[in-house]
Amino acid sequence: MIPVSRRGRRGWASFLRSRARSRQREPRPIAPPSAPVDVIVPVYRGLADTRLCVDSVLASPVRTPYRLVVINDASPDPEVTSWLRRRAEQDGRILLLENAENLGFVATVNRGMGLDAQNDVVLLNSDTEVANDWLDRLRDAAYSDARVASVTPLSTNATICSYPRFCQDNPLPQGYTTARLDALCARVNRGVAVDVPTGVGFCMYIRRDALLEVGLFDVEHFGKGYGEENDFCLRADAAGWRNLHLLDTFVLHTGGVSFGAGKASREHAAMQVMRRMHPQYEADVMSFIRDDPALGARLALDLARIAESGLPVILALLHNRSGGTMRHVKDVARLLAGRAVMLTLTPASSRRVLLRLAEDAEGLELAFRLPEQWEGLLDVLRRVGVRHVHFHHLLGHPQALRDLPDLLGVDYDFTVHDFYSYCTHISLTGRDERYAGERGPGQCGCCAPEISGPKGFGTVGQWRAANARLLAGARYVLAPSHDAALRIAGFAPDARMVVVPHPDLAGAGTLPPAGPAPLRGDAPLKIVVLGALSRMKGADVLEATAREAARRGAPLEFHLLGYGYRAFHGCAASLVVHGKYEERDLPGLLASLRPHLAWFPAQCPETYSYTLSSALEAGLPVVVPDLGAFPERVQGRAWSWIRPWDTRPAQWTDEFVALREKYFRPGKPPPLSESRVLGSAGFPTPYADWQYGHEYLAGLQANPQVTAPFTATELVPYLSTHFMTARLRVFAVLDYLRTHRLLQGLAASIPAAWRQRVSDWLSA
Predict the structure, then answer these.
(1) DSSP per residue over 673-713, as a string?
(2) Nearest-5° Cα angle at 469, 464 to 475
(3) Which residue, 309, 356, 453, 729, has fewest beta-carbon neighbours within 10 Å?
(4) Which pLDDT band, with edges at 50, 70 and 90, does 224 fall under?
(5) Is the pLDDT of residue 740 over 50?
(6) Closest residue by Cα to residue 236 from 116, 124, 152, 150
(7) Are the CB atoms for 298 and 166 separated by under 8 Å?
(8) In what order do the strands lie in the sheet with 37-43?
(9) Over the range 251-282, which residues count as b (16 or more CB within 10 Å of their CB) and which as e?
(10) What is the 3-state secondary structure (H, E, C) of 524-538?
(11) Cα 545 to the chain's mean position, in Å?
(12) Using the 8-state DSSP alphabet, how is residue 545 labeled?
């Protein structure tokens, strides 16, 4: 039981003193005794888990002499009791004990630990699996210093000892068994251990001399279970013993089998007892979490897993902003899962970049300060086996990163997410954040070639020329729409353009047919706008149109599923702002709102639009501007209208009222000519026969098996905790203000907007 709640600064001094004790002198290894180790497995229920646990212990090729002590705590499952008896008869290494009545975890463990006054013990939950020479490594760590009381390995479900995500419950990483992951730990992190404030009881080695000095578990206070191992470790720490987290051993733990539905209530009750008996405990745990001394060892495992996967490793460069670019990279990473590994490199500050897995389900994160750690970045990328580079965005990146493909000796691709290649404003918009037009191919109307370009380049013209050369050297330049491809081709005519949609939709043939919700009587036309609206996304247009509709009393009702870049004024009667939403919740929100129409008031040419995808997936009628990717994406679609992007608010109001009367009230679909650009013969065949699942991986070399894994020490200079130090200091100060009784009023007086900005910065 390791809670992660915060209790201010209390206990910091105690924890730091205990950590300092272990670092003031070199460890003094001692020889382990000749007595066997008692591996104690309390069993209550869960036959499948129990069989896996017991059989894995017996099958492991360990040198350490041991006795497997299985204690049946009056299991209510007859098949558990029957199997245990048969298994004990089959193998003489098992000592089976049976409680006449249910004693609970703590008393049952104490019974096992009291069997022999000479033997060390390993407490092993019945929902675990061990492998290889696990017990040898645990015992080696236990005797690596004369004052080690307990040793806890890595596991999937072990709070502060969890892997791959720290302090979370994890599944086994894809493609790994317990034995394979444990063997990798032994190879990468041999002998690596860190001090912890407490061990975790799913698998905990305890030395007999520590037990004799500190005593058994506290049955009186911790009853049926939870908190007993934390109490023991804290008592050991107070007596000058150490608790270690061993990073070279992995034990699978599924979690919670024995306690079942009563787990939460027992955890809560145990936490109350811990607070009374050890008031510094939570602060000690929080300080450990903030320090995270095992981070380097976990990252070494992450990199070793990537290197030994044998899959092509792709490095995606992108900006550090949220939105469609990051979503696209994650979508492609999911699409290629099991066939390729995708890493991302994003700017973290003006001189730092962060290396992560594209799928953020795991905790890999390394920070490199450039140019000082340039060689370190290259070393990591080479040793992890990067075989391809994909430029998604260069905003915020130093110029030197353009040379990564050459330095790594690999090909690269470029994806068009906006027009930053030749427009420093990114979106072809002027100072009013509306489309500024183009002076010619690759010449936006807002950035003159002779003005200063981005940092590291002379003029905008020189910057554009460098970008055109970058695109011309790409294996593919991928554009999600013909409009985007044509604009980029005008700027970089030598680029090998491929028009392919983002893989967020399964395909046009799987989309539901478009059709409106019924509109009866005098009900207003319900118009929904989706997403986070900036000026260029149409926030001002939405506000002015809603205000005009309210002034007239027009039968129109606007809903913003999302939020604007500022508060809206003068349109409360006709505009409802629903606020930020999670992408996974949007289909349900649309189904609940039941709008008649989705409107996209964009004032700039978008290259794709994920919010349009959401409307198409919902089967909504749509109104889109005749700008960017919108027209071609709804070309020939029923219940779709293409209108001039610069339509004025009064005209939009007229337009929506007319649509309501002409099509929505009678339920009559408009002619398909309404969804065709006037004066255009239409777009070419929708998309080229090119797919991320096939052509993208063609020709990419598999990862050469990298045989020299990183050590935790090698990764220390790149740990993201070094970069996060300033944030953690601010976090600690705010936490202290929030929890200090006399200063709570001061903390509450900080304006909400400021608090939100700080919160966003800390969680970025």
Answers:
(1) GGGS-TT----SSSS-S--TTTTTTTTPPPPP----PPPHH
(2) 130
(3) 729
(4) low
(5) no
(6) 150
(7) yes
(8) 94-98, 66-72, 37-43, 121-124, 203-206, 148-154, 242-250, 193-195
(9) bbbbbbbbbeeebeebeebbbebbeebbebbb
(10) CEEEEEEEEECCCCC
(11) 39
(12) H
Q: Say what the pLDDT of residue 15 is.
A: 41
Question: Nearest Cα to 27, choosing from 143, 129, 108, 139?
Answer: 143
- Sign for the pseudo-dihedral over CA of 511, 515, 518, 524: positive
Q: Which helix (H) or strand (E) holds 237?
A: helix 228-238
Calpha distance 283→11 (Å, rounded):
5
Beta bridge partner(s), residue 143: none
Q: Give how far Cα 517 sits from Cα of 187, 402, 520, 618, Å.
A: 61, 50, 10, 11
Residue located via tokens 């149109």: 545
Report the distance separating Cα 281 and Cα 371, nearest Å: 42
Closest Cα to residue 432, out of 548, 560, 530, 534? 534
Do the beta carbons of residue 1 and residue 227 sit within 8 Å?
yes
Q: Count other C-beta atoms under 10 Å from residue 75's C-beta.
A: 22
H-type alpha helices, 440-598? 460-472, 482-491, 539-552, 586-593
Alpha carbon distance 299, 121 (integer Å): 30
Q: Are 477 and 469 in contact (CB under 8 A)?
A: no
Joined tokens for residue 189: 């992190």
> In the structure encoding, which two tokens stand for residue 613, read together?
């995808």
Supply the pLDDT for residue 736: 41
Q: Which of 308, 139, 164 is nearest to 250 (CA)?
A: 164
Q: What span, in angstroms and rounded, lies between the C-alpha atoms of 238 and 232?
A: 10
Burial class, 449, CB count within 10 angstroms (exposed 0-12 / middle 13-18 / buried 19+): middle
Tokens representing 501 are 């949609």
Q: Cβ neighbours of residue 24 under 8 Å, at least 6 residues apart?
A: none
How far is it, in rounded angstroms, from Cα 182 to Cα 154? 9
Return the closest-CA partner of residue 717 out of 377, 477, 468, 464: 377
What percent of the residues of the chain are helix, what percent strand, and what percent coil, each to the nearest 5? Answer: 40, 15, 45
* Residue pair 507/693 in contact by the 8 Å Cβ criterion: no
Q: How far apart are CA 524 and CA 531, in angstroms?
A: 22
Which residues, other chains included, contact 669 with Cβ-Cβ below 8 Å and sequence gap of 6+?
515, 638, 639, 663
Residue of 223, 257, 129 lying closest to 182 (CA atoms): 129
Enter the tokens of residue 713.
């020490």
Query: Residue 433: which of 630, 323, 566 has the closest Cα?
Result: 566
Q: Which of the two residues, 92 and 505, has the higher pLDDT score?
A: 92
- Quickly tell me which residue has 């919108």 as its tokens: 630
Query: CA 457 to CA 468: how far, in whole Å?
Result: 14
CB 223 within 8 Å of CB 265: no
Q: Would you say residue 463 has pLDDT above 60?
A: yes
Can you give the pTM of this predicted structure? 0.85
CA dist 164 and 305 (Å) reads 11
- Helix H or strand E segment including 569: none
**How far is Cα 484 from Cα 477, in angstroms, rounded to an integer?**
11
DSSP for residue 399? G
Residue 459, H or E segment: none
Mean pLDDT of the chain: 87
Cα torsion through 158, 162, 163, 167, rounded to 10: 130
- Residue 92 CB neighbour total at 10 angstroms: 9
312 Cα distance to chain centroid: 21
The H-or-E segment that residue 726 falls in is: helix 725-739
Question: For residue 323, is pLDDT > 50?
Answer: yes
